[in-house]
Amino acid sequence: MELKITKSEDTLIFYGLTPDLTKIKSIYNSISEYMEKKQSKDPSDRFNLILFLPDGPNYLDHFTFDTNNILSMLKSVENEISTANIAGGVFVATTFVIEVYKRISEKIFRLLIIVDDGAYPIPTHYLPALEELIKKVKDMPFFIDVIHIGHPEYEARNNLTQLVNLSKGDYHEISDISELNPMLMELSYKKKIIKPAFSKQETPLISKENQPFYINLADEPERVTSIATCSICFQQGDEGIVKCPSCHTDVHEVCWAQWAETSNIGIPHVYRCHNCFNILKLDKNYIMDVQTGRIPTIAELNKMKKKDVTDYLREIETQSKPQVVHAEDPFAADIRAMIDAKRVESKGSKKKKKKKKKKK
Ligand SMILES: [Zn+2]
Ligand SMILES: [Zn+2]
């Protein structure tokens, strides 16, 4: 049996209904009930709304727990709603979700597109760019669900279905606004995802081709040169301390490297700040050196101070036995050629000195 888990969801509702075709007043109740139903099941679920006004896509600058914020936004612009551009909306919504994901872990993001026959379909030549974006964010995890109200031969359907499938979301077809409410009730249940998205045991969590995207998303900690107290080990110092650019918490670089072992996002050197959940990155090799014991941690350094260094090194050695590493001699071919040349020169009259290969 597959392990299915559910997590707190942030739902971004994309209002793609056209004023000529669908009266906005007819859906207030359905949207309101949908949000209430979701929150009654999980009070940590949040919402946002994106809709098109004459100036383009508009949305709240963050997800909200208070569903009244969504409803009042909807009501305040009810006379200005313009035809939605699905491609632009998906792009803006997805980019917004990426920004939120940067700061918040342990969420499932759902883009719920409610659309009728009037919205501008996704031009086929935009599709590759949107597909690229969605391929990257589906690791977050991120789903697109669509409710289309209208004709089954809807012209935007094919391109939209392609994006929905890519995100492992669902495309729902209803013929009439009266079916919206039951459909939303059905969708108020959480998405089930197969595996815990970001846990240490499951690898690889972020596919190789998507890793550069997440590495790029991560901030680099800033150097701290003054005396500061590390918020992980609580030791004071002025060496090897960095800070989170988002929350400014001071930490030993080495303490974060240890922390990253359990709090990485699926890439060993990309992890979340223990204080604010912002995504950070440290040097890949540095993290590896700390995690494999080649660079001592603060605790180990303290032990080292207390103990005799020899004892400390002995202790390290009992933990991991020295391993023989075979290295290739990069000059081996040159040396062989040289020896061969000499052999030809001095037809075996002298004994040759053989060069020893250095072993590491
Ligand atoms: Zn520390
Ligand atoms: Zn932080």
Highlighted features:
360 residues, Rossmann fold, six-stranded mixed sheet, 2 domains, 14 strands, disordered C terminus, alpha/beta, three-stranded antiparallel sheet, 12 helices, Herpes Virus-1, binds zinc ion
In words, what does this structure look like?
- With 360 residues, the protein is an alpha/beta fold.
- It folds into 2 domains: 9-187, Rossmann fold; 208-319, 2-Layer Sandwich (Herpes Virus-1), CATH 3.30.40.
- Helices cover 36% and strands 18% of the residues.
- The protein has 12 helices and 14 strands.
- The strands form 4 sheets. It has a 6-stranded mixed beta sheet with strand order 3-2-1-4-5-6, sandwiched between helices. A 3-stranded antiparallel beta sheet has the order 7-10-11. Strands 12-13-14 form a 3-stranded antiparallel beta sheet.
- The longest helix has 18 residues, at 86-103.
- 31% of the residues are buried.
- Mean pLDDT is 84; it is low at 196-203 and 350-360.
- It binds zinc ion (2 copies).
